[in-house]
Structures are given as structure tokens and as C-alpha cells.
Amino acid sequence: MNRRILTLLAALLPVVVFGVLLAAVTVPFVSLGPGPTFDTLGMVEGKQVVDIQGTTTHPTTGHLNMTTVSQRDGLTLGEALALWLSGREQLMPRDLVYPPGKSREEVDEDNDAEFRASEQSAEYAALGYLRYPSAVTLADVHDPGPSAGKLQPGDAVDAVNGEPVYTVERFTAKLAGTKPGETVAIDYRRKNAAPGTARITLGENKDRPNGFLGVSVLDAPWAPFTVEFNLANIGGPSAGLMFSLAVIDKLSTGGLAGENFVAGTGVIKANGQVDSIGGITHKMIAAKEAGATVFLVPAENCYEARSDNNGLQLIKVDSLAQAVDALRTLTGGGQPPSC
To answer: Among residues 27, 162, 278, 289, which is most buried (max CB within 10 A)?
Structure first.
């Protein structure tokens, strides 16, 4: 082998090694970027994203899009560099997304649980805004448990042994004097069904001497119809605000969005409070690329959102009521609060 070929091979070796490193070596980073958006007033896979059954709903106009952040794990060095150079993606240390001691599956399960909880909070916040009365509401029915097959999550408890219970405090007080093996009569209302009475033999509670009904309850606005959210594989709680707005829009006349393409984000509490979220800039990019012109921003995220608004009109919100008022001001030609 002559000297010229040896020199060429020596020069190419670092390039080959670097190429192998780019393709084969994984890095301890996760990429975050703009994710898909979904119109909460629209359809997905043949189903309404927000499906209300058992009452009259009203036509809606425009868009109320929820936004998401995409996430990529298991990146090679080459993929990480390419995503970083694109300017659209943010690289985060993997430990910040998947904490040590938790598997990816466990983190995904936690995110899914947060999403499901946000759906419930969104429904309660919307019903509260619409002035539906509060009731002792079953958040969960333990299965196995004494009430399984007799009561259902979402039932409203009206009375225990014929005595009205208007709050969780009174409900708890009524059960405090019971004993395991005792049978109690629970008068309840069920969505899209006739009221009923369940006779339940109480079980044992290892933490207390009184009987165990096997339910979790909360004071929450209650309506006789069902609200279902038909999105899957979306984690985290940040869709709550847009879900609540969709429920209100469908149960009200006039159309909240008008002809506007509105997108947004925000954690919703059952009392209507809107809390901050992560990844606001990625969500704004996704909204803009989907066609949005207006973006609802949790008040605590305004500083970050202002750094690059991507040509979007940014509306500042700190509560569900403020978000509704802002949209009505917008559709009426006024100037809503801005970041």
C-alpha cells in the first residue's frame, strides 16, 4: 500500500469514527418541540373531542384548539445535534423528564393520570361557571368494595338512610356512626338515568371502627347529563382550560370563538383557577402553524410568551371566567387583556 493511500485512510478515519458516533451513540437528553393541536369543538377519529349527551347543545363556530408538546427520547448524538440546530427543538436532560428511580412507563402512567384528572376538573369548572348546583359527588367507587355494582363514579348522593346530605361533611358525619355489616340506604341521582336507592352492606375499615362504604366523594357542581372527552395518548394537565371552554361553548348560545381561530393552554382547577404550564413557546409555534391567530396564555406564563409571540394575539387569563369574558370581548370587537 503506497504512502498516498495510507495518508488518505488516516485522514478519513476520524471522519468515519465521528460518523459512527453520530449514528450509534445515544445521549442523555430528551427533545421537546411543537406537538399536535386538537380543536376541542371538532372531531377526532369519528368522535367529538368533547361529547355532551343528555341535554341540548348549541352550534359552535371558529376554533378552540388545545396544544401539546412533542417529546422524543432515545436520541442518537446525530439526531440530538440536528434537532438542536433546527431551532425548533429544546434539549432537556433526561433526568428532568424521567426522574431516576422511575421507568418511562411509570412516568407515562403519571402523565395519563394527570390528563384524566384535568378532564374531571375541566367539567367541574365549566359546570360551576354555568351555575349548576353543588352535590356530594362520587369521584370513585372502589372495586372490589361494598358499593361496586351499585353506585357509579359521577353519581350524586342525596340522602343516607332517608336523611338529606348536602355536603361531604354531612355525608361523612352520617357514616361516622355506622358499623361493619350494617346496611345503609343511599339515595342517588345518576346522569342520563332515573334516580335510585342503593342498599349497601358496609364493609370493614382497617383505619376506623365505622362501616366502610368504599367510595371517594367531593363537593362538586353536578348536572344530569354526561360530558366525555375523547382524546387518547395525551399526557399532562394543560388541556384543562380549553376543555372547559368547549363545554361552556356547547352549552351556551352565541359561540365563544366567533369566527376566530383561538388556541391556548392552561391547567384548570375545579374552582376555575387557571395555572401555569410548561412548554409555552412550543405550544405557540404549534398553534401558529395550525392556523391560530389568538392564543390564551396563563397569566404566569405571560413573560415567557411575550419573548416571541410568533405573530399571535396573546390573551392573558388567570381564571375560566376571565377567559370567557376575554373571548366575548374579542368577538364583540373589543380589546381583551393582553400579556
So the answer is: 27
Residue 90 CB burial class (10 angstroms; 0-12, 13-18, ≥19): middle
| pLDDT computed for residue 9 by the predictor | 43
The CA-based angle 314-315-320, given to 5 degrees, is 145
Q: CATH assignment of 134-221? A: 2.30.42.10
- Name the average pLDDT for the chain: 88
Residues 177-201: b if buried by 16+ CB within 10 A, e if exposed: ebeeeeebebbbbbbeeeeeebebe
Q: C-alpha angle with apex 313: 308 to 315, nearest 5 degrees? A: 100
Q: Is residue 2 over pLDDT 50?
A: yes
Q: Are 296 and 265 in contact (CB under 8 A)?
A: yes
Q: What whole-number distance in Å separates Cα of residue 314 and Cα of residue 220?
A: 31
- For residue 98, the model assigns a pLDDT of 77
d(CA 246, CA 51): 10
pLDDT of 8 = 43
Rounded Cα gap, residues 315 and 293, in angstroms: 11
Q: What's the distance, CA 302 to chain centroid?
A: 20
Inter-axis angle of helices 320-331 and 104-129, to 10 degrees? 70
DSSP SS3 for 153: coil
What is the DSSP secondary-structure string of 85-150?
A: HHSS-EEEEHHHHS-TT--HHHHHHHHHHHHHHHHHHHHHHHHHHTTPPEEEEEEEE-SSSTTBTT
How high is the pLDDT of residue 159? 97
Kindly list the distances between the CA atom of residue 259 and the CA atoms of 61, 245, 262, 291, 330, in Å, as whole numbers in the listed order.
6, 15, 9, 13, 10
User: Which of 135, 122, 78, 127 minimizes the C-alpha distance to 229?
Assistant: 122
Residue with cell 411543537: 34
How far is 284 from 267, CA to CA, in rounded Å? 16
pTM above 0.90? no
Class of domain 31-70+99-130+225-332: alpha beta
Q: For the chain, give every domain's residue range.
A: 31-70+99-130+225-332, 134-221
Catalytic machinery residues: 238, 283
